[in-house]
């Protein structure tokens, strides 16, 4: 379903986070965009913001897992399994570097 897809990647959320503007994106996408831009701009609204905090979107995580549980034949693009992983313990800030690991999800953030 469209509402379970990251609006930038157009793939099912695996580690969804909410930025200070209130929009949900895949964590590694926002962090990659934050490193490329001089400011931090919300990709949907183009609103510039200084607070770089990212908060796990628990509701979206539950919705994705519920969808996968109800549709056992679906394997999301780029996923190695059908389980929504725990949110990254680090990487709750756009300024932190995240190294992408295998399995379609983020690896722990670099120090």
Brief account:
The strands form 3 sheets. The protein has a 3-stranded antiparallel β-sheet with strand order 2-1-5. It has a two-stranded antiparallel sheet with strand order 3-4. It has a two-stranded antiparallel sheet with strand order 6-7. It has 111 residues and is an alpha+beta fold. The protein has 2 helices and 7 strands; from the N terminus they run ββαβββαββ.
Supply the key terms.
three-stranded antiparallel sheet, 111 residues, disordered C terminus, 2 helices, alpha+beta, two-stranded antiparallel ribbon
Structure overview:
This protein has 111 residues and is α+β, with helices and mostly antiparallel strands. Helix content is 21%, strand content 17%. It has 2 helices and 7 strands; from the N terminus they run ββαβββαββ. It has helices at residues 27-36, 58-70, and strands at 16-18, 24-26, 40-41, 48-49, 55-56, 98-100, 106-109. The chain has a 3-stranded antiparallel β-sheet. Strands 3-4 form a two-stranded antiparallel sheet. Strand 3 and strand 4 (48-49) form a beta hairpin. The termini are far apart. Mean pLDDT is 81; it is low at 97-111.
